[in-house]
Amino acid sequence: MADSTFNTDMVNKSSKKRSGSSDDQWDQLAATKKHHTMNKIPPPHMEDPAAALSNARHEFGEHGGVNMSIEASATFTVMEPETMRRMFNGELGPDRDFFIYSRHFNPTVLNLGRLMAALEGTEAAYCTASGMSAISSVLLQLCSSGGHVVASRTLYGGTHALLTHFLPRACNITTSFVDIRDHELVRKEIVEGKTKVLYFEAMSNPTLTVANIPELSRIAHDKGVTVVVDNTFAPMVLSPARLGADVVVHSISKYISGGADIIAGAVCGPASLVNSMMDLHQGALMLLGPTMNPKVAFELSERLPHLGLRMKEHCHRALVYATRMKKLGLKVIYPGLEDHPDHALITTIANKDYGYGGILCVDMETEENANRLMNLLQNCTQFGFMAVSLGYYETLMSCSGSSTSSEMNAEEKALAGISPGLVRMSVGYSGTLEQKWSQFEKALSRMQDLKAK
């Protein structure tokens, strides 16, 4: 199927499969359903992602339920034999409510994709089984053997390992790592005709470097390079596609899920890219098969409407804690603090009223100090949990150098600015703010007492 004709404006699924030959009848039915369905597609320049989500089409259930029905089928029937041939030839696709197999397209997963596209202001989106599958599929779709990527040297450890080890070995795709703040170096490392992708995180893991997305996009586009941005750390806060990026990837497992109970990812970008990734012969998503379960897609679609409220509280508490920690003399890294090198930038490019992100870092200088603090915070005062990941309603803490960035060697960590004692905190919103702050203070006081002995 050369073109799956993915369309963010697809109409509601009717309760019965239509014949492939009933085109006029289908067009009338589609027009009727469009009239009765909340089906407004937000313009790509819309600034507020919550407003964009609200304007996205609402999918009703098969029997009029306010929540959509779950299409749990792995395969789909047709009413006439000729219909199947036309579907495999690309004449009939999901834009007209014809589905082949759920590894290809599934109605429930497509609905979540529409919401993700609205959130990020892109033409289309498709959701995957994990964040890493979204990242790897995009890179494999955009780069062929002999291709080249320019990437930030500060990335999630799994992404860094993919670019450093797996892609060169398995696919002959190489990467040049750069300081993403050094725009001249970025420009210099792009090799016209060979470099296919400029890849970076909107807010870097774990150092919280904020990328100048508009300027980096201009640099890449001047040289014909596709800009791919991981926005896992800053949904709602930053909107990379609205700032000039071509593709936005997410680990939905984090803030968008919010419950630390689901592994999922998303690719948001042009409809032409999503179509190419689902092509029967050349599509990375179609052929590698990182399929999202429709039951997972349903759960996630129910959580997106309150993502904005959750993000505002994550960000509010992170700013309050970062400010207070700094006053206590701790070395704090947080974009909301005025002494952060990217504070002015994020103030300029962030979506209004969503804050500066829900992650803060405390540099305890040594891994021993970091572990001692985290142990007290979890096991003595119940401030949070020692666990990787982020976006949970409880505060999650990890020492990045020995956990989520452990794939990097000592030199790579030093170049990325990852201190051995860097504690990454994903600030939660359970309990009251003052209750949790008191727990942090007690742990810090106890740590100082133990040092004095």
From TrEMBL:
Keyword annotations: Lyase, Pyridoxal phosphate
InterPro entries per the UniProt record, alphabetical: Cys/Met-Metab_PyrdxlP-dep_enz (IPR000277), PyrdxlP-dep_Trfase (IPR015424), PyrdxlP-dep_Trfase_major (IPR015421), PyrdxlP-dep_Trfase_small (IPR015422)
Record-linked Pfam families: Cys_Met_Meta_PP (PF01053)
Cofactor requirements of the protein: pyridoxal 5'-phosphate
Superkingdom as given in the UniProt entry: Eukaryota
Biased composition (Polar residues): 1-12
A GO-annotated cellular component: cytoplasm
Recorded GO MF terms: methionine gamma-lyase activity; pyridoxal phosphate binding
Top enzyme category: lyase
Signal peptide coordinates: none
EC code: 4.4.1.11
Modified residues (N6-(pyridoxal phosphate)lysine): 254
Region span, Disordered: 1-26
Any one of the GO BP annotations: transsulfuration
Family (UniProt): Belongs to the trans-sulfuration enzymes family.
Protein name: Cystathionine beta-lyase/cystathionine gamma-synthase
Organism: Handroanthus impetiginosus
